[in-house]
Write a structure and sequence with these properties.
Elements lengths: L1 E2 L9 E6 L4 H12 L4 E6 L9 H11 L3 E4 L6 H6 L1 H22 L2 E7 L22 H10 L7 E5 L2 E2 L6 H9 L5 E4 L3 E2 L2 E2 H13 L4 E4 L6 E2 H11 L7 E4 L21 H5 L8 H13 L1
Parallel strand pairs: 2-3, 2-4, 4-5, 5-6, 6-11, 7-10, 8-13
Antiparallel strand pairs: 1-3, 9-12
Length: about 300
Protein backbone atom coordinates (compact mmCIF):
# COMPACT_ATOMS: atom_id res chain seq x y z
CA UNK A 1 0.00 0.00 0.00
CA UNK A 2 1.22 3.46 -0.90
CA UNK A 3 1.39 6.36 1.50
CA UNK A 4 2.70 6.81 5.03
CA UNK A 5 2.50 3.73 7.24
CA UNK A 6 4.13 5.26 10.32
CA UNK A 7 2.43 7.10 13.13
CA UNK A 8 0.24 10.00 12.00
CA UNK A 9 1.76 13.34 12.90
CA UNK A 10 -0.10 15.51 15.43
CA UNK A 11 -2.95 17.52 13.93
CA UNK A 12 -3.08 15.33 10.84
CA UNK A 13 -5.70 12.84 9.72
CA UNK A 14 -4.79 9.43 8.34
CA UNK A 15 -7.07 8.29 5.53
CA UNK A 16 -7.12 4.82 3.99
CA UNK A 17 -8.47 4.78 0.42
CA UNK A 18 -9.56 1.39 -0.91
CA UNK A 19 -9.73 0.88 -4.67
CA UNK A 20 -6.98 3.49 -4.99
CA UNK A 21 -5.97 2.31 -8.47
CA UNK A 22 -9.35 3.04 -10.06
CA UNK A 23 -10.44 6.21 -11.82
CA UNK A 24 -12.07 7.63 -8.68
CA UNK A 25 -9.51 6.14 -6.29
CA UNK A 26 -6.63 7.90 -7.99
CA UNK A 27 -8.46 11.23 -7.80
CA UNK A 28 -9.31 10.63 -4.13
CA UNK A 29 -5.68 10.07 -3.25
CA UNK A 30 -4.68 13.23 -5.10
CA UNK A 31 -7.48 15.27 -3.53
CA UNK A 32 -6.66 14.23 0.03
CA UNK A 33 -2.94 14.85 -0.54
CA UNK A 34 -3.73 18.33 -1.90
CA UNK A 35 -6.16 19.28 0.88
CA UNK A 36 -3.98 21.72 2.73
CA UNK A 37 -1.41 19.11 3.74
CA UNK A 38 -3.64 17.92 6.58
CA UNK A 39 -3.92 14.27 5.53
CA UNK A 40 -1.65 11.27 5.58
CA UNK A 41 -3.03 9.12 2.78
CA UNK A 42 -2.61 5.38 2.52
CA UNK A 43 -3.55 4.23 -0.98
CA UNK A 44 -4.63 0.59 -1.25
CA UNK A 45 -5.11 -0.76 -4.78
CA UNK A 46 -7.08 -3.91 -5.54
CA UNK A 47 -3.84 -5.87 -5.84
CA UNK A 48 -2.71 -4.64 -2.44
CA UNK A 49 -6.02 -5.09 -0.64
CA UNK A 50 -8.74 -7.54 -1.70
CA UNK A 51 -11.77 -6.19 0.14
CA UNK A 52 -13.54 -9.56 -0.19
CA UNK A 53 -10.81 -11.11 2.01
CA UNK A 54 -11.79 -10.54 5.63
CA UNK A 55 -8.35 -11.30 7.04
CA UNK A 56 -6.68 -8.85 4.64
CA UNK A 57 -9.15 -6.09 5.42
CA UNK A 58 -9.05 -6.47 9.20
CA UNK A 59 -5.27 -6.82 9.14
CA UNK A 60 -4.80 -3.67 7.09
CA UNK A 61 -7.24 -1.49 9.03
CA UNK A 62 -6.21 -2.67 12.48
CA UNK A 63 -2.51 -2.23 11.63
CA UNK A 64 -2.88 1.21 10.04
CA UNK A 65 -5.52 2.46 12.50
CA UNK A 66 -6.74 5.19 10.14
CA UNK A 67 -8.98 8.03 11.26
CA UNK A 68 -11.13 7.54 8.15
CA UNK A 69 -11.63 4.90 5.47
CA UNK A 70 -12.89 5.98 2.05
CA UNK A 71 -14.22 2.75 0.60
CA UNK A 72 -14.11 3.22 -3.16
CA UNK A 73 -13.21 -0.38 -4.03
CA UNK A 74 -16.01 -2.14 -5.90
CA UNK A 75 -16.74 -4.49 -8.75
CA UNK A 76 -18.41 -2.04 -11.14
CA UNK A 77 -18.65 -4.17 -14.30
CA UNK A 78 -22.43 -3.94 -14.39
CA UNK A 79 -23.08 -6.59 -17.04
CA UNK A 80 -20.47 -8.98 -15.66
CA UNK A 81 -22.08 -8.69 -12.21
CA UNK A 82 -25.31 -9.95 -13.74
CA UNK A 83 -23.59 -13.21 -14.68
CA UNK A 84 -21.77 -13.68 -11.35
CA UNK A 85 -24.00 -12.47 -8.51
CA UNK A 86 -21.97 -14.25 -5.83
CA UNK A 87 -18.81 -12.35 -6.79
CA UNK A 88 -20.75 -9.07 -6.90
CA UNK A 89 -22.10 -9.67 -3.40
CA UNK A 90 -18.73 -10.87 -2.10
CA UNK A 91 -16.95 -7.71 -3.22
CA UNK A 92 -19.58 -5.01 -2.99
CA UNK A 93 -21.70 -6.13 -0.03
CA UNK A 94 -19.69 -8.55 2.11
CA UNK A 95 -16.48 -6.63 1.40
CA UNK A 96 -18.13 -3.55 2.83
CA UNK A 97 -19.09 -5.57 5.92
CA UNK A 98 -15.41 -6.33 6.50
CA UNK A 99 -14.43 -2.69 5.98
CA UNK A 100 -17.12 -1.54 8.41
CA UNK A 101 -16.00 -4.14 10.96
CA UNK A 102 -12.38 -3.08 10.74
CA UNK A 103 -13.27 0.61 10.99
CA UNK A 104 -15.47 -0.08 14.00
CA UNK A 105 -12.56 -1.76 15.81
CA UNK A 106 -10.27 1.27 15.44
CA UNK A 107 -12.90 4.03 15.62
CA UNK A 108 -12.48 5.13 11.99
CA UNK A 109 -15.12 7.07 10.08
CA UNK A 110 -16.26 5.28 6.90
CA UNK A 111 -17.25 6.91 3.63
CA UNK A 112 -18.73 4.44 1.15
CA UNK A 113 -19.11 5.24 -2.54
CA UNK A 114 -22.44 3.98 -3.90
CA UNK A 115 -24.43 4.35 -7.10
CA UNK A 116 -27.56 5.52 -8.88
CA UNK A 117 -28.22 1.86 -9.72
CA UNK A 118 -29.85 1.45 -6.30
CA UNK A 119 -32.92 3.05 -7.91
CA UNK A 120 -35.20 1.60 -10.60
CA UNK A 121 -35.26 4.82 -12.63
CA UNK A 122 -39.04 4.98 -12.87
CA UNK A 123 -39.77 7.92 -10.56
CA UNK A 124 -39.96 10.39 -13.44
CA UNK A 125 -38.06 13.00 -11.41
CA UNK A 126 -34.63 13.20 -9.77
CA UNK A 127 -34.13 10.98 -6.73
CA UNK A 128 -33.35 12.59 -3.38
CA UNK A 129 -31.59 10.85 -0.52
CA UNK A 130 -34.80 9.83 1.25
CA UNK A 131 -36.37 8.05 -1.72
CA UNK A 132 -36.71 4.30 -1.31
CA UNK A 133 -34.17 2.27 -3.33
CA UNK A 134 -35.41 -0.43 -5.67
CA UNK A 135 -32.43 -1.83 -7.59
CA UNK A 136 -33.17 -3.87 -10.71
CA UNK A 137 -29.69 -5.27 -11.40
CA UNK A 138 -27.30 -7.54 -9.52
CA UNK A 139 -24.82 -4.65 -9.37
CA UNK A 140 -27.41 -2.30 -7.88
CA UNK A 141 -28.52 -4.88 -5.32
CA UNK A 142 -24.93 -5.61 -4.31
CA UNK A 143 -24.14 -1.91 -3.82
CA UNK A 144 -27.31 -1.40 -1.79
CA UNK A 145 -26.22 -4.40 0.26
CA UNK A 146 -22.99 -2.55 0.97
CA UNK A 147 -24.90 0.52 2.13
CA UNK A 148 -26.82 -1.65 4.60
CA UNK A 149 -23.60 -2.96 6.17
CA UNK A 150 -22.56 0.48 7.44
CA UNK A 151 -22.96 1.93 10.91
CA UNK A 152 -25.41 4.87 11.26
CA UNK A 153 -22.66 7.48 11.58
CA UNK A 154 -21.04 6.52 8.27
CA UNK A 155 -21.18 8.58 5.09
CA UNK A 156 -22.73 7.21 1.89
CA UNK A 157 -21.95 9.07 -1.33
CA UNK A 158 -24.16 8.00 -4.22
CA UNK A 159 -22.96 9.11 -7.61
CA UNK A 160 -23.58 8.38 -11.29
CA UNK A 161 -22.04 8.22 -14.78
CA UNK A 162 -18.49 8.78 -13.52
CA UNK A 163 -15.84 9.83 -16.03
CA UNK A 164 -12.34 11.26 -15.87
CA UNK A 165 -8.78 11.12 -17.14
CA UNK A 166 -7.93 7.85 -15.36
CA UNK A 167 -9.24 4.33 -15.82
CA UNK A 168 -11.84 3.02 -18.22
CA UNK A 169 -14.94 5.17 -18.70
CA UNK A 170 -17.48 6.17 -21.29
CA UNK A 171 -15.70 9.35 -22.42
CA UNK A 172 -12.57 7.39 -23.26
CA UNK A 173 -14.69 4.79 -25.05
CA UNK A 174 -16.40 7.48 -27.14
CA UNK A 175 -13.08 9.04 -28.10
CA UNK A 176 -11.72 5.64 -29.15
CA UNK A 177 -14.78 4.96 -31.29
CA UNK A 178 -14.51 8.40 -32.86
CA UNK A 179 -11.11 7.49 -34.29
CA UNK A 180 -12.76 4.85 -36.46
CA UNK A 181 -15.11 5.26 -39.40
CA UNK A 182 -18.87 5.25 -39.60
CA UNK A 183 -21.69 6.01 -37.23
CA UNK A 184 -21.65 5.70 -33.45
CA UNK A 185 -24.88 4.45 -31.85
CA UNK A 186 -25.76 5.52 -28.32
CA UNK A 187 -29.00 5.12 -26.39
CA UNK A 188 -31.28 8.13 -26.19
CA UNK A 189 -33.73 6.78 -23.60
CA UNK A 190 -31.48 6.64 -20.52
CA UNK A 191 -31.15 9.94 -18.66
CA UNK A 192 -28.77 10.82 -15.86
CA UNK A 193 -26.23 13.23 -14.44
CA UNK A 194 -22.57 12.68 -15.39
CA UNK A 195 -19.95 13.14 -12.67
CA UNK A 196 -16.30 13.99 -13.16
CA UNK A 197 -14.06 11.92 -10.90
CA UNK A 198 -11.89 14.82 -9.70
CA UNK A 199 -14.93 16.95 -8.83
CA UNK A 200 -16.46 14.01 -6.97
CA UNK A 201 -13.24 13.38 -5.07
CA UNK A 202 -13.12 16.99 -3.92
CA UNK A 203 -16.60 16.71 -2.43
CA UNK A 204 -15.74 13.41 -0.74
CA UNK A 205 -12.76 15.11 0.94
CA UNK A 206 -15.06 17.82 2.24
CA UNK A 207 -17.63 15.34 3.59
CA UNK A 208 -15.00 13.11 5.20
CA UNK A 209 -13.10 16.01 6.75
CA UNK A 210 -16.34 17.23 8.35
CA UNK A 211 -17.34 13.63 9.24
CA UNK A 212 -20.84 14.34 7.97
CA UNK A 213 -23.03 11.27 8.50
CA UNK A 214 -25.76 9.89 6.28
CA UNK A 215 -26.40 9.69 2.56
CA UNK A 216 -25.45 12.36 0.03
CA UNK A 217 -26.13 12.39 -3.70
CA UNK A 218 -23.07 13.87 -5.40
CA UNK A 219 -23.07 14.51 -9.15
CA UNK A 220 -22.15 17.31 -11.46
CA UNK A 221 -25.02 19.51 -12.60
CA UNK A 222 -26.99 19.16 -15.79
CA UNK A 223 -29.02 16.26 -17.19
CA UNK A 224 -28.20 14.41 -20.36
CA UNK A 225 -28.56 11.10 -22.20
CA UNK A 226 -25.79 8.83 -23.44
CA UNK A 227 -26.64 9.95 -26.98
CA UNK A 228 -26.33 13.64 -26.07
CA UNK A 229 -23.16 12.99 -24.10
CA UNK A 230 -21.54 11.23 -27.05
CA UNK A 231 -22.40 14.16 -29.32
CA UNK A 232 -20.86 16.58 -26.81
CA UNK A 233 -17.66 14.52 -26.60
CA UNK A 234 -17.27 14.40 -30.40
CA UNK A 235 -17.89 18.13 -30.72
CA UNK A 236 -15.35 18.94 -28.00
CA UNK A 237 -12.78 16.66 -29.65
CA UNK A 238 -13.22 18.31 -33.04
CA UNK A 239 -15.19 15.49 -34.63
CA UNK A 240 -18.58 15.66 -36.35
CA UNK A 241 -21.30 15.10 -33.70
CA UNK A 242 -23.64 14.15 -36.53
CA UNK A 243 -21.91 10.77 -36.61
CA UNK A 244 -23.73 9.84 -33.42
CA UNK A 245 -27.05 8.08 -34.01
CA UNK A 246 -29.73 7.56 -31.37
CA UNK A 247 -30.87 4.04 -30.52
CA UNK A 248 -33.44 2.75 -28.04
CA UNK A 249 -32.20 0.55 -25.21
CA UNK A 250 -34.59 -2.18 -26.36
CA UNK A 251 -32.98 -2.15 -29.82
CA UNK A 252 -29.37 -2.66 -28.67
CA UNK A 253 -27.76 -5.62 -30.44
CA UNK A 254 -26.60 -7.55 -28.57
CA UNK A 255 -28.85 -6.56 -25.64
CA UNK A 256 -27.14 -5.67 -22.37
CA UNK A 257 -27.45 -8.36 -19.66
CA UNK A 258 -28.08 -5.89 -16.82
CA UNK A 259 -31.16 -3.66 -16.80
CA UNK A 260 -30.35 0.06 -16.64
CA UNK A 261 -32.45 2.63 -14.78
CA UNK A 262 -34.06 4.71 -17.55
CA UNK A 263 -33.97 7.93 -15.50
CA UNK A 264 -31.40 7.84 -12.71
CA UNK A 265 -30.99 11.58 -12.12
CA UNK A 266 -29.81 12.16 -8.56
CA UNK A 267 -30.97 15.26 -6.70
CA UNK A 268 -28.35 16.45 -4.21
CA UNK A 269 -30.97 17.59 -1.73
CA UNK A 270 -28.89 16.75 1.35
CA UNK A 271 -25.98 18.88 0.17
CA UNK A 272 -28.30 21.73 -0.79
CA UNK A 273 -30.22 21.68 2.48
CA UNK A 274 -26.95 21.50 4.45
CA UNK A 275 -25.80 24.70 2.73
CA UNK A 276 -23.05 23.00 0.71
CA UNK A 277 -22.54 24.30 -2.82
CA UNK A 278 -23.19 21.64 -5.48
CA UNK A 279 -20.65 20.56 -8.07
CA UNK A 280 -20.57 22.63 -11.29
CA UNK A 281 -22.29 21.64 -14.52
CA UNK A 282 -20.85 18.47 -16.04
CA UNK A 283 -20.26 20.20 -19.38
CA UNK A 284 -17.45 22.30 -17.87
CA UNK A 285 -15.76 19.18 -16.51
CA UNK A 286 -16.37 17.31 -19.76
CA UNK A 287 -14.56 19.99 -21.74
CA UNK A 288 -11.64 19.85 -19.31
CA UNK A 289 -11.37 16.06 -19.51
CA UNK A 290 -11.72 15.83 -23.29
CA UNK A 291 -9.00 18.46 -23.65
CA UNK A 292 -6.72 16.51 -21.32
CA UNK A 293 -7.33 13.24 -23.15
CA UNK A 294 -6.84 14.66 -26.64
CA UNK A 295 -3.97 17.09 -26.14
Amino acid sequence: MGGHAGRTRPGRVRVLVTGAGGQLGRELVAAFEAAGGRHDVVAATRRQLDVADRDQVLGAICTLAPDAVVHAAAWTAVDACEGDPDRALAVNALGTRWVADGARRVGAHVCYVSTDYVFDGRKGAPYHEWDDPNPQSVYGRSKLGGERELDPGSTVVRTSWVFGVHGANVVKAILALAEGDGALRFVHDQRGRPTEAADLAGMVVRLVTARLPGTFHVTNGGDTTWYELARDVLRLAGHDPGRVEPVATADLDPPRPAPRPPDSRLDGAALRLAGIDPLPDHRHALARVVTALTS
